[in-house]
Design a protein that fits this description.
The chain has a single domain, classed as TIM Barrel. The protein contains 11 helices and 9 strands. The strands form 2 sheets. Strands 3-4-5-6-7-8-9 form a 7-stranded parallel β-sheet, with helices on one face. Helix 3 crosses helix 4 and helix 8 crosses helix 9.
C-alpha cells in the first residue's frame, strides 16, 4: 500500500475507497451486480484500504447497508467517513438538508445503517447554491454531536475558500473534500488554503467526473498517455499519482464497482512522477466538473 498521512491524529493510507459507485445508476437504488459490489469492498480490506468514504444519501441507504452487510464487524484500523447536508429526491436530485435537526438525523441514520456508535469523520456538504442555513448553526450542531460521542472529526465539503476559512474559525476542520483533478484545477485556492493550514485535502471526482466523461478524457490526453507509457502505467494511475504529488496530505478516494479498477487505482501508489513528468502534465487540457 501507499504511504500514509494523518487524518486527525491517526495515520491512514493515502489511497482509500469512495463508495458512491457502489449504488445503482445515477447513485440511486441497488447496484446492478450486488455480488460485484461486495467483492470490491472485501478486496479493498484485503489490500489494506483503511479509509472508506460513504454517505447515507448514496442510494439512498443502499451503500451504507451494503458496507455494513459486507464488512461488519469492521477491522479496528478501518476509518469510516460520511457526509451530511444533502438528501435525495424522487427525481434523483440532491437537494440540501442543512437545518440542524436534519444534520442530526443524518448522522444518526449513518450510525444506524453502518452499525456504529461513532463516526470517525463527518463531512458537512454545502450546497451548490450557497448557504441556506448559517454555517455557524450547522457547525454548532456537529459540535454538539461530537460532544455526545456520535462523531470524532468534522470536515467540510463542496466549500469555497471563504467558507473553509469560516469553518476553520468555528471548529477544528480535519479534512476538506472538494472537486479537484488533473482535469479540473478550479479549486487550487482551497487546496493552497488546506496546505497552509496542514489540513488533509480529499478530492472528489479525482479522475474527473464520470458524468462528464472524465476517465475517457484521461485516456485521450496526449500528455497523460505519454507519461503513462514512460512509466508502464495506465492513464488513471498517472492522474492519481499527479494528485499524490501535489500535497503530502492529499488523501484519495477513487470510486469503482470493479475489483480490477480498484487494484489499478491502488497501483498508482507505485508511480513516482519526476519533475519532467510533472512539467509535461501541466499541459493537460482542463475539463469542468459538476459538483457532487
Amino acid at each position: 500500500m501507499t504511504s500514509s498521512a494523518l487524518l486527525g491524529d491517526r495515520p491512514v493510507s493515502r489511497i482509500g475507497l469512495g463508495a458512491m459507485q457502489l449504488a445503482g445508476p445515477r447513485v440511486m437504488g441497488p447496484p446492478r451486480d450486488p455480488d460485484a459490489a461486495r467483492a470490491v469492498l472485501r478486496r479493498a480490506i484485503e489490500l489494506g484500504v483503511d479509509h472508506l468514504d460513504t454517505a447515507q444519501y448514496y442510494g439512498p441507504d443502499v451503500v451504507n447497508e451494503l458496507i455494513a452487510d459486507t464488512l461488519f464487524p469492521y477491522p479496528g484500523w478501518l476509518r469510516l467517513v460520511t457526509k451530511v447536508g444533502a438528501r435525495r429526491d424522487d427525481r434523483g436530485g440532491w437537494p440540501p438538508a442543512q437545518r440542524p435537526e436534519e444534520l442530526r438525523t443524518a448522522v444518526e441514520d449513518n450510525l444506524r445503517s453502518l452499525r456504529l456508535e461513532r463516526m470517525d469523520l463527518v463531512n458537512l456538504r454545502l450546497p451548490d447554491e450557497g448557504e441556506l442555513v448559517p454555517l455557524a448553526d450547522q457547525i454548532g450542531e456537529l459540535e454538539a454531536l461530537r460532544r455526545e460521542g456520535k462523531l470524532e472529526l468534522i470536515g467540510i465539503s463542496n466549500a469555497s475558500a471563504e467558507q473553509v476559512r469560516l469553518a476553520m474559525a468555528l471548529t477544528t476542520i480535519s479534512e476538506v473534500q472538494n472537486p479537484y483533478s488533473i482535469l479540473d484545477r478550479a479549486d487550487e485556492a482551497v487546496l493552497e488554503l488546506a496546505r497552509s493550514e496542514g489540513v488533509p485535502y480529499v478530492p472528489f471526482f479525482p479522475l474527473g467526473s464520470a458524468f462528464t466523461g472524465g476517465p475517457r478524457r484521461l485516456a485521450k490526453d496526449p500528455a497523460i498517455t505519454e507519461v503513462a507509457d514512460r512509466h508502464g502505467a495506465t492513464p488513471t494511475q498517472v492522474a492519481l499519482a499527479w494528485l499524490l504529488a501535489r500535497y503530502d496530505r492529499m488523501l484519495l478516494i477513487p470510486g469503482t464497482g470493479s475489483v480490477a479498477h480498484l487494484e489499478e487505482n491502488l497501483g498508482a501508489a507505485d508511480v513516482a512522477l519526476d519533475a519532467t513528468d510533472l512539467e509535461r502534465l501541466e499541459g493537460v487540457q482542463q475539463l469542468g466538473n459538476p459538483l457532487g
